[in-house]
Design brief:
mainly alpha
Length: about 270
């Protein structure tokens, strides 16, 4: 049953991605609604898959790369729908929903078997640390999508190509606002995730910080987004600079989450 729910989620996410791509080319109110219903339905199935996995495993299913990538994908869709509903910008899905689809596709590459929980993971901090982190990551994914659209729209303005795609994309101010809102939502979550992770590390390994590769790269990610937030609040960083830093931060965050696990060994490595 779990496998069926997983692949059904993937199929619906793929259908939603295609629908959003068509919407990007030929936007219409009806197609926007269809895309929204598809991704919302996919999220519901994804939640059911996660619950089924939880029942089967007996713990929150975020303990290996298959589960973590799947949960990350689910968080991206959930946060996207929140911002899409708030700003009423369906075209954002054309750039964010594919991220969720790719995460699901990559998760399918890793072993799906449910295995006994590592003793170090048997802690109340597992849920607090990981869930908060993934929703922070998800908000950065939405900021990434908004940043990509921002740079596209800015390009059309500079080239004075004010027809076609330009008319289908939101204004620069709206996109910059989405970027900022995602940052103010995601950064506190990332901060809580790092603090809770340090507390968890102390209870599990007897030290709050060991400069493990995952800890080091998490700190690098935090500094990038801290610099972006500080710049926006104190020196008025907006627009292109904020968009570029959001894109850089997103890729550093991806490396922190996935690259470190695959390429570096440490206390946080899992496959």
């Amino acid at each position: 049953m779990n496998a069926s729910l997983f692949y059904l989620t993937f199929a619906v996410y793929m259908a939603a991605t295609l629908s959003y791509m068509v919407y990007l080319a030929k936007p219409s109110e009806q197609l926007g609604k269809t895309s929204r219903w598809l991704i919302s339905g996919g999220l519901l199935i994804h939640i059911l898959f996660t619950l089924a996995r939880y029942i089967e495993a007996g713990h929150t299913p975020i303990t290996n790369l298959h589960e973590s990538l799947s949960f990350f994908s689910m968080a991206v869709v959930g946060v996207f729908l929140f911002f899409e509903r708030r700003f009423k910008i369906a075209v954002l899905g054309s750039f964010v929903v594919p991220v969720a689809l790719i995460l699901m596709a990559v998760s399918a590459l890793f072993p799906t078997a449910v295995v006994p929980l590592n003793p170090a993971l048997k802690s109340k901090w597992l849920v607090i640390h990981t869930v908060v982190a993934f929703f922070g990551y998800a908000s950065f994914a939405v900021a990434f999508g908004a940043a990509i659209i921002y740079l596209m729209q800015e390009h059309y303005l500079k080239k004075k190509k004010l027809g076609g795609m330009f008319q289908k994309l939101p204004s620069l101010n709206t996109l910059d606002d989405i970027n900022y809102r995602c940052l103010t939502f995601g950064f506190p979550l990332l901060t809580v995730a790092i603090i809770s992770g340090a507390i968890w590390a102390e209870t599990a390994w007897g030290t709050y910080w060991s400069w493990d590769p995952k800890e080091t790269w998490s700190l690098i990610t935090w500094f990038i987004y801290a610099a972006l937030l500080h710049g926006r609040l104190t020196t008025g960083w907006r627009g292109r600079r904020a968009a570029i830093l959001s894109i850089i931060g997103f890729f550093v965050m991806l490396f922190t989450f996935l690259g470190v696990n695959l390429l570096m060994s440490g206390l946080h490595s899992y496959k």
